[in-house]
UniProtKB/TrEMBL annotation:
<keyword id="KW-0733">Signal recognition particle</keyword>
<comment type="similarity">
    <text>Belongs to the SRP9 family.</text>
</comment>
<dbReference type="InterPro" id="IPR008832">
    <property type="entry name" value="SRP9"/>
</dbReference>
<keyword id="KW-0694">RNA-binding</keyword>
<dbReference type="Pfam" id="PF05486">
    <property type="entry name" value="SRP9-21"/>
</dbReference>
<dbReference type="GO" id="GO:0006614">
    <property type="term" value="P:SRP-dependent cotranslational protein targeting to membrane"/>
</dbReference>
<dbReference type="GO" id="GO:0045900">
    <property type="term" value="P:negative regulation of translational elongation"/>
</dbReference>
<dbReference type="InterPro" id="IPR039914">
    <property type="entry name" value="SRP9-like"/>
</dbReference>
<dbReference type="GO" id="GO:0005829">
    <property type="term" value="C:cytosol"/>
</dbReference>
<protein>
    <recommendedName>
        <fullName>Signal recognition particle 9 kDa protein</fullName>
    </recommendedName>
</protein>
<keyword id="KW-0963">Cytoplasm</keyword>
<dbReference type="InterPro" id="IPR009018">
    <property type="entry name" value="Signal_recog_particle_SRP9/14"/>
</dbReference>
<dbReference type="InterPro" id="IPR039432">
    <property type="entry name" value="SRP9_dom"/>
</dbReference>
<comment type="function">
    <text>Component of the signal recognition particle (SRP) complex, a ribonucleoprotein complex that mediates the cotranslational targeting of secretory and membrane proteins to the endoplasmic reticulum (ER). SRP9 together with SRP14 and the Alu portion of the SRP RNA, constitutes the elongation arrest domain of SRP. The complex of SRP9 and SRP14 is required for SRP RNA binding.</text>
</comment>
<dbReference type="GO" id="GO:0005786">
    <property type="term" value="C:signal recognition particle, endoplasmic reticulum targeting"/>
</dbReference>
<feature type="domain" description="SRP9">
    <location>
        <begin position="5"/>
        <end position="66"/>
    </location>
</feature>
<keyword id="KW-0687">Ribonucleoprotein</keyword>
Length: 84
């Protein structure tokens, strides 16, 4: 479990991971108020991608990623997204 430093790399690799195995992929968000940190994790039980931030502006990026995952879940892994 390595944290990915770049947001763009995290998004691209997360989408690839989900498309490779949508049935076993999970997307988890964890916020620790005492630290003020948000951790996003995408895993398929073989590979784990994590991104950590303490910046408030990254919340908008997280909302966009949520919408991408909602689109992929609704339309299937071959559905078009803005990052495709």
């Amino acid at each position: 479990m390595v944290y990915i430093a770049s947001w763009e790399e995290f998004v691209e690799r997360s989408i690839q991971l989900f498309r490779a195995d949508p049935q076993s992929s999970r997307y988890v968000m964890k916020y620790r108020h005492c630290d003020g940190k948000l951790v996003l994790k995408v895993t398929d039980n073989r590979e784990c991608l994590k991104f950590k931030t303490d910046q408030a502006q990254d919340v908008k990026k997280m909302e966009k990623l949520n919408n991408i995952f909602f689109t992929l879940m609704a339309r299937g892994p071959d559905g078009k997204t803005q990052f495709s």
